[in-house]
Amino acid sequence: MRPRRWILLCAALAALPDSAIGQTEPASATGSALFVSCQANEPRCGAYLQGVLDMMIVARKAECRAPRYDRSALRAAYLRWAEQNSYFMSVHMVAGAERSLAKAWPCQ
Fold first, then answer.
1. Burial, 12: exposed, middle or buried (Cβ in 10 Å; 0-12, 13-18, 19+)?
2. What are the two backbone dihedrals, phi and then psi, of residue 5, each rounded to the nearest 5 degrees?
3. How confident is the model at residue 12 (pLDDT cuts 50, 70, 90)?
4. Is 78:101 a contact under the CB 8 Å cutoff?
5. ∠ at Cα 103 (47, 56), nearest 5°?
6. Neighbours of 40 (CB within 10 A)
7. Is the pTM of this model over 0.85?
8. C-alpha distances in Å from residue 54, one per residue of 21, 42, 43, 71, 80
């Protein structure tokens, strides 16, 4: 590779936000953050789970009998599931949220 192209490539990589290469999830976006929020019964827990459920409904084009507007039921289902699936504490919170809701209210 020519030196000028090498320098341009390095400059482009350095300009990426937070060195996007090998990024990990911020602590506030992990399953453990959602778990703590739900344990504390914070409103954002129910709101987040409601948003995940809405996206699942759109993606699957089915409601799967989940209680769309009963955030306490969504929260309870997530907490039951998360206590048994601690692997999801270190990954993005959407992974565990989607799996917990799909397990609680499977589609036919």
1. exposed
2. -65, -40
3. low
4. yes
5. 50
6. 9
7. no
8. 31, 19, 17, 12, 20
Place of tokens 């504390």: 40
Instruction: Locate the DSSP E strands across 5-94.
Output: none
Which one-letter DSSP state was computed for residue 18? T
The pair of three-digit structure tokens given for residue 26, joined into one six-digit string = 């911020």
Which residue type occupies 89? M
Contact yes or no for 93/30 (Cβ under 8 A): yes
pLDDT per residue as tens digits for the range 26-82 = 667 888 999 999 999 999 999 999 999 888 888 877 666 777 779 999 999 999 999
Which of 95-98's residues contact partners 24+ apart within 8 Å by CB, and which partners? 95/31, 96/31, 96/34, 97/31, 97/34, 97/48, 97/49, 97/52, 98/52, 98/56
